[in-house]
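Most newcomers find our protein records easier to grasp once they have seen one. Sequence and backbone structure share a record, each on its own labelled line. Nothing more is needed to start thinking about how sequence determines fold. As an example, a complete record with its sequence and its structure tokens follows.
=====
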Amino acid sequence: MSDTQTTHTNPQTLPSGMARVSQALAQLGHPHAPLVLDDAARTAQQAADALGVALGQIAKSIIFRRKPDDAAVLVITSGDLRVDEKKVQALVCADGAKLGRADAEFVKQKTGFAIGGVSPLAHATEPVTLIDAQLFRFAEIWAAAGHPHGVFRLSPQDLSNFTGAPVADVTVSP
């Protein structure tokens, strides 16, 4: 990771979403505060390029809408893989219920974050969450910190511990 591309920022000067994530990480005793990237990292590729890490080390947050109860379903997946919506649906929907795509308004309303900055924690409303088993290929991963310019470092095990979410096979098979 290049220090010229990131800065450590005082939590009081962070955008509101990043401040919530920073506070949540501090409460969890996590040693790595969010970093502010010079350029936005709205995609996993942009984040990987800015951090100088493998694309798979980016824990991207994908939000779906569970239709029967309008719940947000957060799938945290490895940046180099695609989510298999049918696998997710089988895990989080009962009685043939369906998942739908979540638009920007739904994502912001349910999570409190804009698309491109959805953190795996500190949501406005707790989502149904699944963690991609493929993230465990890496000792260190990076997740969005509540803003398109914000990221934080953690291990896949930390992610599992912090969210309490099950680890599952949720990606398209190669």
